């Protein structure tokens, strides 16, 4: 037996196996043009931050979401001469949180370091072999006539 109940703004629908076997007759509702979070961008018309903006890349909802929101809000609403200068502690807290989840928030330095050792080893061995090659070639070549006359 399927049924529906309202929980706050959400409607919870329980269905049976038989309900799933029949094609749906649900009608899609068009987007609400008055929805304050729909297609608004980062800053809403009233000046608030739109935490649902895809431009934030999910940062506001991850494990460090509250720290991100505190830091970002502090910066956004900052009235200081140097914007955000009073927010250093909030950004430090966010950074410390992100360091606890390196698999979710890889640091740029980590990305660079992972590529650097093999690249630098290749460059070192290449430059060493180039130096050896040039030393061998200069020793093994016979002087030209111009070089012997000087």
Automatic annotation (TrEMBL):
It is found in: Mitochondrion intermembrane space. Residues 102-150 are annotated as: Disordered. Residues 124-150 have a biased composition (Low complexity). Keywords: Disulfide bond, Mitochondrion, Oxidoreductase, Protein transport, Redox-active center, Translocation, Transport. One of its GO terms (molecular function) is protein-disulfide reductase activity. Signal peptide: none annotated. Residues 64-100 form the CHCH domain. It comes from the Eukaryota. One of its GO terms (biological process) is mitochondrial respiratory chain complex assembly. GO terms for cellular component: mitochondrial intermembrane space. Gene3D superfamilies: 1.10.287.2900. This is Coiled-coil-helix-coiled-coil-helix domain containing 4a. It comes from Neolamprologus brichardi.
């Amino acid at each position: 037996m399927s049924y529906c109940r309202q929980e706050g703004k959400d409607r919870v629908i329980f269905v049976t196996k038989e309900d799933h076997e029949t094609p749906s007759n649900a009608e899609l509702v068009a987007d609400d043009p008055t929805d304050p979070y729909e297609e608004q961008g980062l800053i809403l018309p009233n000046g608030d931050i739109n935490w649902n903006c895809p431009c934030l890349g999910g940062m506001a909802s991850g494990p460090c979401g509250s720290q991100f929101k505190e830091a970002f809000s502090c910066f956004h609403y900052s009235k200081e001469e140097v914007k955000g200068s009073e927010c250093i502690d909030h950004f430090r807290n966010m950074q410390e949180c992100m360091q606890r989840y390196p698999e979710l928030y890889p640091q740029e330095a980590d990305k660079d370091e992972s590529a650097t050792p093999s690249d630098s080893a290749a460059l070192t061995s290449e430059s060493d072999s180039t130096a050896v090659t040039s030393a061998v070639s200069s020793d093994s070549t016979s002087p030209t006539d111009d070089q012997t006359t000087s």
